[in-house]
Amino acid sequence: MADDQSNDKCVGSSLVASATLVTGNVSTLAVNSRPRKAARKWRGPLERLMELPLEVLYLVIESLELRDVLNLARIDKAFRNMLMSRRARPFWQAAIANTPGLPSCPPNMEEPQYAHLLFDNMCHGCGRGNTSKILFHWGVRYCKECLPPQRELAHLFKEVLQETGVAKPLYVTMDGQVHIREMEEFRQKWEALEGDGPGRKKLAEDNAKQVVLRRTHASTCNQWKANLGYARRAENKSIRAARLAAIKERLRGEGYTKELQVIGDAILAKQSFVNKPTPLTDRSWHAIRTDAIRFLEQEHTVKIRRVREGVVRPNVVMFLKVYDEWLQAWDPNWYDPGDLKAIHRMRPADFLVMDEVRLVVDAPAGCIVFPGNFEYARPKLLDMVVRWYAQQREALNDVFRDAYPALPQDTEPIGLAICSFDCSSPRCGGKFIHYPDILDHRCSMLRSTVTIKGSGYVNVIEESMARLSRPLPWQAQHVRVNERMVDHICELVRACGYDPLYASWQELDAQGQRMTCASCAAATDQETDLEVFDWRRAIHHQAEFMHRDRPCKWTMLPEEVAAKVRAFEARLREVPSRPWRQPFYRCKMKKSCWDVYDYDDLQAHARDAHGIREELQDEHYELCWHWHKTGNDLLHGTCVRFTRAGGVKVSSRYITVNDVQEGEEETAEVQDGDAKAGKLDEETCEEDMELDASAIFDQWISSDVFGECRGS
């Protein structure tokens, strides 16, 4: 009875052992207590393969190549049990023989292992896929991270050489790498035979013979793999050539024969929809048809453009010299006697796009153009200038009316004080520019945005000007209207006592009013400098970060003080100014947002692209600065201080006298006799402004606007 129980225990233990999968030093029990799912039934062409007679099935398997037999052994358990048994070894040997040029299986590997090494791209170290490096001398695939490091084997090899006379019992690469598993196995066997000289010698000699055989077999396998790659590349090349021919035939059927002749096969073959090692079918053509036609049209446009540019550019360079002669011959009294910069606002690109100059520059390829040919257009110079100004006025009027439709129809927008324009580039410092100065603004940052749009004459001129680092033709699309600032400028004009729908900028310039920001002055005491602006500088103050959301409350200076401020500014304009910063914003709401915006455009971008309608927070954007170095246009205004002693001090807080490069903020006090040196005697200044400053200051401080702002 005890013997039966012990036998049952032995049988049970053997069943468990047979159901155990051993991997390295880790044993995993393969027995699962859950019920097994029913095997999935085959579907498709191989659905009834197992129903074939065995003789027919064996003949089919014997005709397969090694890769196919490996895949067949992995279909299901039936084929696996049949092909992974030792009785199926003839099938594997026949498959190796059926594979063209494949060397026979090495003696240290089984045929399934050999097939797995050749056709599975799994790393034998970490299991990572897509591993193409096969180390035939070791019989493994390793990724870059799993390659064995260099080992110091001089001590072991020296010991083997001294006892057996064998130099290298292990395979060592030219880089000094050795397979760690083989080295440990050899070391264990070597140490186990300690004291057995003949045994150690036989072990070393056998390993050395295996190294020679494996080196020869590895060389043959590497050659087979290289030949296989050559054959595959040749096959893919022929498939790509056939695909290219088929796509060209389809495009000819679409009516693109002329475009194919211009482009050529070399450029077309490099495109992703052509450069594929797959035959072209009706379905694949339907998928790539749109891309192929779009590429053909764009490339044809580029080719035509390049040819046209090669003809036009020498004539453009020739016209640049003629343009300098036109500037010298221009009489300021021809167009507008009061405007000395009439023709200087126009650039060579503006003349090049006019019909009179284009007739010469865009001559046919066979014509030879000389500088004298441009004399045809010189008598029409005044007509071209008049026509250009009329076109730009009309374009700017349309731009402003579209942005601000509340204007009366009988008013020309560009003559109004509220009609100001910004450069379309957020990084550019061209802000709040009125007509006609806006025509003189040619942003250099727009040249970097010139792209190939077409093969037309204007497109060729734009690219030629960009390549020559010359301004582009002036276009209304290069400017825009800041609608928020227009509303703020309206409040500023009302504070000056004018109707913003009819007041012109000439009227405000002639009046010469000076003002301070009551919103800023409310936070100051009576002995602190108060910044003073004319109406143009007040616009830039309104655009500062702290005032952009609501209009400033402006307080007008008395005429006596304003007159002294204007005299001070007149003397101060010759002093150089410090560089100033222009803010712009970069979106941080999504990593793919790389564009920059001003604040209004950033709000529109957040609303349209990210659905954010509430007020933007600091985490939504990054504030950046672009430095501008300009002349002294007094963008930062003048400062005035009223003292209880009865004097008024006028100074400029931001004018740099000593070092413009370092941008140090210093006070430049300018005296009548020493204006260029930038020094103003304080006592003389107070004597110049001997008027009842105390009374003026008290009256100004007690005004309603200032009092309301001070109370808030």
From TrEMBL:
PROSITE patterns on file: FBOX
Domain F-box per the UniProt entry, residue ranges: 46-95
Name under which the protein is recorded: F-box domain-containing protein
InterPro entries per UniProt: F-box_dom
Organism: Trametes cubensis
